[in-house]
User: Fold this.
Amino acid sequence: MDLVLSLGLQIVYVIANLALISLGLAIIFGMMRVINLAHGEFLMLGGYTVVVATNNGVNLWFAMLVLAPLVVGIIGVIVERLLIRWLYGRMIDTLLATWGLSLLFIGLITSIFGASTTTTISPPLGVVTIGDYTSSGYELFLIGVTIALLVAVYLVLKFTTLGLVARGTMQNADMAAALGVSTSKIYMITFGLGAAVSGLAGGLLAPITGVLPTIGSIYIAKAFITVISGGAAILAGTTSASILLGGLNGFISFVTGPTMGEVALLLAAIILLRLMPTGITGRFFKKSQ
Amino acid sequence: MKIAGDFRGTLFIAALAALFTLIAPSILNFVTILTLTQVIGLAILALSLALVWGYGGILCFGQTAFFGIGAYAYAIAAANIGGSTGAIFVGIAVAAIFAAMLGYFIFYGRVSDVYLAVITLTVTLILYSLLRRTSGPEYKIGNALLGGFNGTGAAPLNIPGDGAAMLFPEQTFYVAMAALILAYVFCGWLVRTHFGRVCVAIRENETRAELLAYDTRAYKLGIFTIGAGIAALGGIFFSVGVTRVTPDIFSLSQAALTIIWVIVGGRGTLVGPILATFGLYYLTASLGTQQLINTNLVLGVILIAFVLLVPQGIVPTVLNWLTARRSARTDRARERRVRMRRPRAGARGEGA
Assistant:
């Protein structure tokens, strides 16, 4: 029984982790149909924000939950205004430009902080015991944060004016613009919000993975595949794809080790896209957000 | 826009390259020749992406996956067979088969641009993390140890049929250059065949090509698979040049570099990306020797600058500029002729 509970918790953690690293990307993709290839670097910048802040004596929780999303969100808005804005409607060029941005951030951070980890932060919170098994308290905390984040995004999309306008822009940008919505401003806010969520995720994961200029590349493959499999609906897509792929990954990893877990995740995603080319939410839950 | 220039131009460039091959060993030093073999492998990779993306319109962000698979398959086969000739074909075949299987899911699932880019990139990154974990002694194929992070050794080329007669670095350079030239001429020929023209038509307007009763899925799969085979050839020469294959071949930065070569050289040309590979390799190699400016930073700036300012790439921009100048000159000449003719016409008018 304890084993089942412990394994279940582990799988839930893998799912939550996947949802956490993908949500920022999903917000930007859902709104603009653009895959932000600098997503991994937004996560990385979140991690560096936390490290720099805690080294300067800022409280770890404040750095993770407030500073990281704030700093990366501001960077996101700047990036949108300076770069992405000029490329609306040119989807492939946007992909390429964000890839250039990703290299630029990696280069910049390497120049400032060096190519290796500056300082590691140890994960706060102790160990939780479940019968004979132990689980990290911080992992439980991350599961909680992910759920809270998903609920928050749902509430914003469903019950605020911003959410209403954003959903309208998502469905039909031209019509929204004709009704007097400044779609450019909506895109700016969404890109900033997506970046902020990525920054938060990067900050939260920094104590577990450490920070490196190239750390983004360990997240992005999984984040891309989750968002693509999920389809255009931000919440339903991320959640359903995370549960499916994360569950599979967690289970296979438990049985055979982490290598096969990732391969299984990829294979499942490719077969899924053969069956549903527009992602899970392109096929099911069409009315969801 | 002219879709493919003419084939004589391709042969002319190939002849220039052959000339360079013959004189290079006498004007360049030994180390440069050694390095050039690697760069030729990378140039073949750029050529394959120029074909798949520039002509096929398939935005493959993971062309390095086939490059790397070709290199790994070559290294493993060479270690098991004990000679390089058969191993080269094994490398190309394995990559092409892998591409055909992946391409089946992509094209017959009708996965479009952005999804395709991300899926191919993800496949590359998964291969990266997969091969990095193969460091234990249990990960071996025949005699070849995969070696995890450190990779596996790639055997040097040898004279066909005689596994012990290794080629000298200069001879390897000749073979690599010959492969590049042949691959270039092959691509130049391919894009002018019926098959190539249909691929270009699909790039321009897939729906229209489909309404003209072409099975666009099969054509895309075809050019994707051929491109993968060429990329694998590049990977083989690259690994022979480096003498090792490491998982870094699948890294994100290598994938980005390949895209940058094609963007800088220009989509829709074959020679542009090849030249861009040599140029940018030289640039990054000289940047690598100093600590002041980070290479990634420079590459990022180059990519962003080209996407925003020179989206066509260097070679098409220069060609367009030359064509524009030439047509301006012929326009001026025609105007001059017209002006010279006019008084005569007027004189005749007065006479009548």
